[in-house]
Each structure stands twice: as C-alpha cells, then as structure tokens.
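Give me a protein, keeping tokens residue-aligned:
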Amino acid sequence: MNAVEQEVNQAGYIGEEPSYSSGCIPEVLTDIYQQPINIVVLQRTLAEEVSDYCQKLVDSKPNFNLRSVITPEKAGLSLKSSLPDMEGQSVFIDDLVLLLEMYACLFELDEVGVRLQVLDRAMCPRFHTDKLGCRLVSTFLGQGTEWLQNSDVDRSKLGVGNQGLSDDKSGLYLSSACIQQVNPGGVVLLKGEGWYDNDGLGAVHRSPAISGEKRLVVTMDFA
C-alpha cells in the first residue's frame, strides 16, 4: 500500500470497489439495483430540436418552474398543457415522457414526482446526500450534476463535518480531479440514504457552480 492509499483508508473513504456505472444504452440504469452501485449515468446526446426548444423555453420563461405528480399513461397530455407551445415542443415532450416511462418502469411506479425548472444559481452548491430512495436528474441546458464516487470522498467531512470549510478546503476529497460531471443531456440516477440498506452510502453530489448562465433541469422522484 502506497502513502496515498494509506491516507485514504485512514481518512474514512469507503473501499476501492467502483460505486458507479455508466453506459450509452438505457439498460445500464438497472445497475442501480447492484449493492455497491449508488450512481448510474446514462450517457446520451440531445437531438438538436430538443436543445433548440430548451433554449427558447429558457429565453421566453426565465422563471419557469413546473412541479407535478404525473402518471406515465397521461404524461404527454399533462406536459403539453404545462409547457409553452413553441416549435419543438412535441419532440421535447417525447423525450421527457421517455425518461419518465423508463424511471417508472425501473422502479415499478404508478406515479412520478416531476420537477422541471430553469435555474440561474446552484440550488445545492455543497456536496451532500439525499434522504430519499433514488432520484433521476437530467440537465437539458447548461452544466450537469457533479458527483464523487465512494472511494474519492471522506464522508466524515459532509455536513457539519466540514467545520465551516468549503468543499475544496475541508478534506472531503483529495483533489479536484476526483470531481466527476454528467454531460448535458445525460441522465443520472442518484441512490439516496432512504434506499433499503443504504444508510451512510447515499450518492454524494452537488449542483455545478454557474455564473451568468441558466440551466434547465428535470428531476424525478418516487411520488
């Protein structure tokens, strides 16, 4: 064991086994059921029509904030009544419905809690875990979610453990090279502390720091 590995193990980092999974096909999302996995990233690129609609939505509705509990069967109609009627709306709705259907199918949900919001600041600027089952996050416009895998984070420095120091000063992670980020359009599943037998192992993540730009982000939760 080298000096760095010894320091990491003594500091309270959790193991060396990968705690995340990533891939380009939707089936990768099922990896969230694997015991060591608390983060799954579905890599994808948005269609140009979707990106264009998102930009128009942000430009025309800079304070847009949709919160709703939606059933997969009525998702299209529900979203159509809530989103601005502009070119590309149907393509964007199709993409949102696809995400909702995948999420509902994955966790056998009859209803999904959906939030679609334009953001001009980091809603959760500090690395943290969530007290829930498993959240889906996708950034349609702007920078994506930042996260740390288990072997790169000292959980004793989360919350009050940071002793008032910023994430980069508290010793939460060894270096900025440890910080991973989901690409725009990518889909990330974040397993929370509320997942069965996952107390103390929730996905460590935060919103990216933004300045002078806006993000369009969708989150999905168990209703």
In short: The CA atoms of residues 49 and 88 lie 6 Å apart. The first helix runs from residue 3 to 11.
